[in-house]
Design a protein that fits this description.
The structure is a homodimer of 194-residue chains. Chain A has 194 residues and is α/β, with parallel strands linked by helices. Chain A is built from seven helices and eleven strands. Chain A is 36% helix and 20% strand. In chain A, the strands form three sheets. The first copy, chain A, has a seven-stranded mixed beta sheet, with helices on both faces. In chain A, strands 3-4 form a two-stranded antiparallel sheet.
Chain lengths: 194, 194
């Protein structure tokens, strides 16, 4: 599992750090021998710029500049007010659609990242979710389901901001099994009843 | 409420981004007129270096270089394997202790950030919590309580990694009231039953 999380100016901080934390913690725990994984696990933040100023003012340096998606088998698109600017990036939207059609590829979104998948044509005829303030907008493109994480074939969408953690855990569950996901969930203490 | 989150090499990503997201979202919602706050709300990431490489490989640029804590009235110390190096930073530990003794100051930790508070002498005679793997280590310094967030006077400690969100919400509740905290919780969709 080689995952890219695409970040961009105006990306919501927790939208990408939640799923990043979960996947990177899985990798770290495999390295420590605390979990056994059936395939290598890698996660990178990729962006079109060398610095990314996020929605609430945090600045992050991506691991790699975006040069296409050929090196990855999972792509995660977080949300935030910055998604609006991606709507006009036809080259990127075309690449996202091509990626989604690749056999074995997994494509996911958090929050309003689902709109980017919609604009790319990935959500046609599918069930998906997004932040509660944007469900109506997304409903123009697909069947919106008000759940925290929605899996439809190889397309996984998460709800608002903090659902990023749940999305990451669901990806681990699908690709590496329930036991691995459960151990990562316990390690980050996301297993408490509320 | 002017909060500083101290970040350092090896800081755990979600440990600081969780509380950052919550406080920054409160500020943004106040700016949008969606919540009314009784005092201004600001949050900054501060560090001793211009770039901070986090525990799982994410690189963040702090808002400000650390030059003492005189400009803040809340200080939050996240955890991660990088805390070990702070143990020998006597100048910093002294500043943290001085900060905690200032009237009206609020001091908080997430995860193993509690160890930094302990080394600074802030937890003497107090109740506190930390990541489940480090409770025994922390018990040499204070009364360890296995709860998600522990409030003891002006010292607030959170449990492991994802409790960063709960810590942020508790700080909002204490300083700005339950209604504000509840609205931020709903906006980030952290209000779902699990």
């Amino acid at each position: 599992l080689k995952a890219a999380i695409l970040i961009f100016p105006g990306v919501e901080e927790l939208d990408f750090v939640g799923v990043y934390e979960v996947l990177a913690k899985g990798r770290a725990m495999a390295g420590e021998g605390k979990i056994k994984i059936r395939e290598p696990l890698e996660v990178e933040l990729i962006a079109c710029t060398r610095e990314v100023k996020c929605a609430n003012g945090m600045t992050v340096l991506p691991h790699r500049l975006y040069r296409g998606l050929q090196d990855y088998d999972a792509l995660i698109i977080p949300g935030g007010r910055g998604v609006q600017a991606l709507r006009d990036d036809e080259g990127l939207l075309r690449e996202i659609r091509k990626f989604a059609e690749r056999p074995g590829a997994l494509i996911a979104s958090v929050c309003t990242g689902a709109l980017v998948l919609a604009w790319a044509g990935v959500l046609e005829g599918r069930r998906a979710t997004t932040h509660h303030d944007h469900r109506e907008q997304l409903a123009a493109y697909c069947d919106v389901v008000p759940e925290r994480v929605v899996v439809d074939g190889n397309v996984i969408t998460g709800g608002g901001i903090s659902s990023s953690l749940d999305l990451g855990l669901r990806i681990l569950e699908i690709r590496l099994g329930e036991e691995v996901a459960g151990k990562v969930r316990a390690r980050i203490e996301y297993d408490l009843e509320r």
